[in-house]
Amino acid sequence: MARTALGGVALAAVLLLSACGSETGSPTSSSPTPPATLSATPTESQDPDLLQLNESLKETLGDNYSEGWIEGNKLHVAVIDQASAATVTEAGAVAHLAKHSAAEIEAAIGKVMSWQREQGGDVATAIHRYLPSGRDGSITLAVDSAQLAGIEKGLKEGKVTGDIELKFVESDGPATPASSG
User: Fold this and answer.
1) CA dihedral in degrees (48, 52, 55, 60; nearest 10)?
2) pLDDT digit string (tens) for 3-29?
3) Alpha carbon distance, N-terminus to C-terminus of the chain
């Protein structure tokens, strides 16, 4: 019985931690972006109170929320309108105006995934990671170097993501599960 409870706690911890990042893996993911978009610079810790504040603001702001991050030991939240910025400030966080909501960026990632599947062949597996940024309204795609030029050209010419900017970087390879050893 204790072993089952411990397993449940471990699963809950993994799910909670997975919701704190903003990077998305392979195109086979069922949801292109995590349920909460929160990042911290490598030297910043993710204070539990700030994580909770981010979750609360994300719920309160709904479709007006874009991204949250921790910088200078303060929660920063990107939102798409002035009224939401006022709500963020009143809650004690630092507000930033964003071009697109998290939902709009998630929808754009879905369009990239659909486009990728439609291309088939090597292109279907060449985008290894999607990194959404509500801060600047962009999506960074980590792409197999052999397919990078073609994918960049196809996505830009097809205007697949509308006015959401796409950035491209060479990938070191597909995302792999962490070693359990």
Assistant:
1) -160
2) 443 333 333 333 333 333 344 444 444
3) 25
CB atoms within 10 A of CB 44: 15
Output b/e per residue, 26-43; b: 16+ Cβ within 10 A: ebeeeebbbebbbbbeee
Q: What pLDDT, in 10s, does the model give residues 98-133?
A: 999 999 999 999 999 999 999 999 999 999 999 999
Burial of 91 (0-12, 13-18, 19+ CB in 10 A): middle
Q: What is the pTM of this model?
A: 0.70
Which residues are CB-neighbours of 174 under 8 A, at least 6 positions away? 26, 125, 128
Provide the angle, in degrees to the nearest 10, between the axes of the packed helices 148-157 and 102-119: 120
Whether the Cβ atoms of residue 127 and residue 151 lie closer than 8 Å to each other: yes
Q: List 95's β-bridge partners, or say none.
A: 77
Residue with tokens 């070191």: 172
Tokens of 158: 């097809």
With CA atoms as reference, report the closest residue to 135 among 78, 51, 69.
78
